[in-house]
Amino acid sequence: PFPAPQARQDEAFGGSLGLTRRLRRNRKADWSRRLVRESVLTTDDLIWPLFLMDSSQARTPVAWMPGVDRLNIDEAVRQSAHAAALGIPAIAPFPFVEKSLRDPTGSEALNARNLMCRAVRAIKAEVPQIGIICDAALDPYTSHGHDGVMDGETVLNDASVHILTQQALALADAGADVIAPSDMMDGRVGAIRAALDANGFEMTQIMAYAAKYASAFYGPFRDAIGTNATLIGDKRTYQMDPANSDEAIAEVALDLDEGADMVMIKPGLPYLDIVARVKDQFRVPTFAYQVSGEYAMIVAAAQNGWLDGDKAMMESLMAFKRAGADGVLTYFAPKVAERLKAGG
Ligand code: PBG
What we know:
This protein has a single domain (42-341), classed as Aldolase class I (TIM Barrel), CATH 3.20.20.70. 39% of the residues lie in helices and 16% in strands. It contains twelve helices and twelve strands. Strands 1-4-5-8-9-10-11-12 form an eight-stranded parallel beta barrel, surrounded by nine helices. The chain has a two-stranded antiparallel sheet with strand order 6-7. Helix 4 runs parallel beside helix 5 (158-174) and helix 8 (246-257) packs across helix 9 (272-282). The radius of gyration is 23 Å and the shape is elongated. Bound molecules: ligand PBG. Its EC number is 4.2.1.24. It is an enzyme of class 4 (lyase). One of its GO terms (molecular function) is porphobilinogen synthase activity.
């Protein structure tokens, strides 16, 4: 029937503009939007960071991250099994270390019976199909909250790398599938790669926190692992300046030369330009970390009724895919996987 009803409407307001290209045509119905969609988010894109604690209690809430709990080892095993059943490929556990176990050199990090190593062994034994990605960094273990060892006010580079290498070996020995150096010392990827190879861990992967910025968005994480009150100063002498982009390219190039199998950009959404640039330039497996502060912003706004939390969650994760990320570390992982399983 011509003219179509909307054409008659247009007529009433002065007629068609006579456009050849109308990008709205492809958006007119759900089937069409699905057909022309450029990026897809699947459960295979998700890495779930979780918090461990030594406790008889199964869970305690992280105050600054509503909906996130610290888990004891038994509960971490159960939740890892749940994540695996949902199809989440990998988890990234972080420990809340008792304050009495922290010291200036982070010596508890090298204890083969520490919380992380025991948890990794337990999860590997019960849920062998899930990948386990473990941070190499000393901040959960140091009394000053820094990722390395200090001489006065200075975080020492090479001394820290020697300790981080030992930490990586302890984690690999416990069964970590991937070592993720998050310390931002120079040369740590190469040193860890060499040590892993020399000790029979040739197949242990390295996901480098290649471009990790000195960011305010880590605040809630430091509440989760109990370093917020203890951190002396800030991390600007080793984590990157938020103003820099070329420097991220240099960091990624070095980490790849030193043997990184995958690279990560952190934080996530505020640094999407870096994600896109790194993926465009290097064409290697590239991940983004939607950090604790990004999680907290979405959840807090949703709790106030200021935005639709689920929609903001899905949109933020789709943005990572659009930017070129191969996957995302996100505290939303189980929630997203459940949603995708239910049909999006
Ligand atoms: C520690 C580490 C941090 C995060 C991951 N590993 C904190 C920091 O560098 O202070 C932050 C993760 C998050 O905020 O979700 N090396």
